[in-house]
User: Fold these one by one.
Assistant:
Number 1:
Amino acid sequence: MSGRKSARGAVMILVVYVLSTWAGAAVVQAQGAVPDITLTCSQPSPIDVEPGAPRSTIVNCNLENPSVHQVKVEIRIQAGNLAYSGPASVTVGNGLSASFQVTLRADLRAPEGSQTVAITAEVTQANGVPVTSSPSTYTVLAIIRQFSRLRVESDVAFIQLRPKVDTNLVFAVYNDGNAMDRFAIGIDNREELNDEGFQLSIPLVSVEIESMAPPQKIYVQMRTPKNQGWTDKYYNLNFKATSDYSIKTVGVADYQIQTMTIYIRGIYLPGFELVGTMMISALAAAALAGRNGRQSADEDIVDADGNVTPLSSSIF
């Protein structure tokens, strides 16, 4: 009898021990015994990529360790076409948090657009012991901001013309920005030239150009002044192109001016064209009359015997 009681007592003790072990394990589990990490990151500022800009932005991230272990966290970054720098790993104490930064850098004049950046954190050690855990990934969007930049050129910088002549001036507009832009076209000192007697016309008032595309040719139709008398004077024509994007977004016009010097030398007399036409007509009539007279003088009379008598001598 006593033997059976002692055996039952031993079984009861064993059951109590097992149950207490399970309860202890449950308490430890509730306290965060399994290594884990939580990752959060902030959205970075847009990246400016024009010449002279830093071309970089910073992503601020935070790691929280809810477990009872000190953990070592491995950091992995995928940034597409962007260059990046950041820590390879971060150590976080039990129940604590730690922050780190990832720097993103774009190429000079990188095209306007956006790039997805994925930052992954994974616990690789707990209290110095290698462990396996589920990675935590946070995704942010890096935006490359558009910028405006342009150039203007002319075929010639100096031209000499006579009064009252028509000519076409050729200019070229380049889009050196990182996205398509529209450019307004004009003559910056047009009113001044109109007062001097110039007549100017531009077929295009604006033009759209892709980033880094071949230049757009702009033609300016010009008639020089017809001021009476002798002219010997220099003028400046200021061709101007202005970025539409810069006005709509920044509020400050980004423009370029190409100056062409025009030298007008010669004489203009009102009605001179009519006098010239009349003189040419008179000379043509005189030449025609002379030719007809020569043909009449060359005509001879031939009789039946074959004798030739000049017409002039047969009259008298």
Number 2:
Amino acid sequence: MTDTTITGLKTTLLRVPWPGEPPPNGIMAAQDRQYVVLEIMTKGGITGMGYLQPLRGGSETLDACLREMIAPMILGRDATEIEGIWQSIWKGTYWMGRAGVTVFAQSAVDIALWDIVGKRAGLPLYRLWGKCRDEVPAYGSGCWRGLGRDGMIDRAKQFTGMGMKAIKMQVAHIRPWREDVKNVHAMRDALGPDIEIMIDVNMGWTADTAIQAGHHIDEADPYWLEEPVVCEDFEGYRRVAAALKTRVVGGETHVTRYDMRPFFAQPSAPILQPDMMRGGLTELRKIAAVADTWGIQIAPHLFHEIMVHVLCSIPNANYAEYMDWNDDIWAESAIPKDGVVRPTETPGHGVRFKPELLKDCRVGGTEVTR
């Protein structure tokens, strides 16, 4: 058997120019894309890769956390001890953690460890976890509010032209809610009755505004209203869900299943959207298992290139979120075809950054060895 003792961690910090204009979404800084790439080396020669995409900066902070706090906990451990390592990091960073930087760093480790185990087994992750399906439907995400009404509609038609039967548009932040309502109805008129329209508020409204706007949005028959209030306002979630016909969803900003407990204790969101950077693949699959117990589906936040493995291995999969803003960074892009995304058969998660990008866009990083 290959020796999977962890011998080293290597980080590469990347700043990658946008292929075009930065997303005009009103919530992200107009700067280069940032990535933290983590490689975990083992004695037997297998290397696993995990990565993070900080949307508002913090790469060097994450790098410092991995070097100072995380590396000493995992060097010398067996990479197949995924649950044990997850618990060690969680408990070992508890004073400074339970959310934020430490959990993001922990998530990168978890993703890399699963990559190692998949490679050792010679299986893609969705088969390693127990295949449930071959493919999942994808929705086109990125009909940015800053594009304006016509620009959002044009963007949506790009996605439907690729065969997708669902798109997501934004509201709030940049525009007043009455204009948002007009945009939603214009999108429905442009796409017709057979395309699902997801609406993302990005926590931009109060519960009262979400209810007021939502009554008008209901008439356009959208598929969901996402993150209508700030993530801490669980009572607001419940108020909005009770007032509207449209399903209310969320979860991308919540950290681990512990932060999501109110969604299960008093269910009001029929679909949850966990983010792999907020607990890793281990935690995301636990969230999916608990959600399935309550009849709740999973539509993960971003990262469809890895989330397809999760979705194809759980019974309660909903949609994969296809965001095309990273298609240019991968050696092999996971672009949906005929409206669905399929997992790679490469052992592990099968995701690789372009080698030239790791060299040309590198702005920092460290290496820690045993």
Number 3:
Amino acid sequence: MSKENQSIEALHQRETEFHDDWATSEALEDIEVHALFEGLCAIENQFIIQDMGNLQGKKILDVGAGLGESSTYFALQGAEVTYNDISPKMGELAQALAAHHGTSIKTVITPAEKMTFEADTFDFIYCANLMHHVPPEEQEDWIANMHHFLKKGGKLYTWDPIKYNPVINVYRRMATEVRTIDEMPLGFDILKLYRKYFTQVSHREFWLSTLYLFLHYYLIKRYNPNKVRYWKRIYKENNKTIGWWFKPLRALDSALLKLPLVRRLAWNMVVVAVK
């Protein structure tokens, strides 16, 4: 085995162990499903689900799906869902979550880069916070595989953190115990790889002034960033808790993030790629 392959295998092992540990720490009843797509702070997913439209009968591959909230949500909307994750314990938890909500999903436990499906299998591929875990040397192969798995006219939806915002970069240096050491936020140069394989590629950025929520958690709520996963905690918020100030900031972001240079300071980027 080459040194490069050894390095990638070691990365996969670290990711598996980290996410197995995370899965065993979660209580089923505490996992948000509807809030992940319908809640006040579900900005990215509201955009994606609106673009997807009616999911009844659609075949969806949910890549790097973790706790299984998104897979369960899609299944509840009538989709035929294939769940993927690197962690066996995450897969077990995702199956239990789906059953808890009265639905079911198929599970495939393997690194995303090693998945194998027939060509033209899926209507949609959804991938949240996974691409920045894929080793840079494997990103192009990963995108090519996703293109292969999609039906003609199908869509790949990915969303990940981008690397330019100083607030998020400080947070990442602080929250070392709730994320893996191999994560690497993306730059806009990643779009070149999508455009190499897909006929249409668009992107939209989210969270700028609304990132005040992270400061609110740290300075006012005093949430320890190594005990509370801020990016998960946001889905527990609602109109009563933060709506009075979050909604105006969200409206401000809608205007600010239309500006090409300003959008580089956003937290997350959603990419929609059409085959």
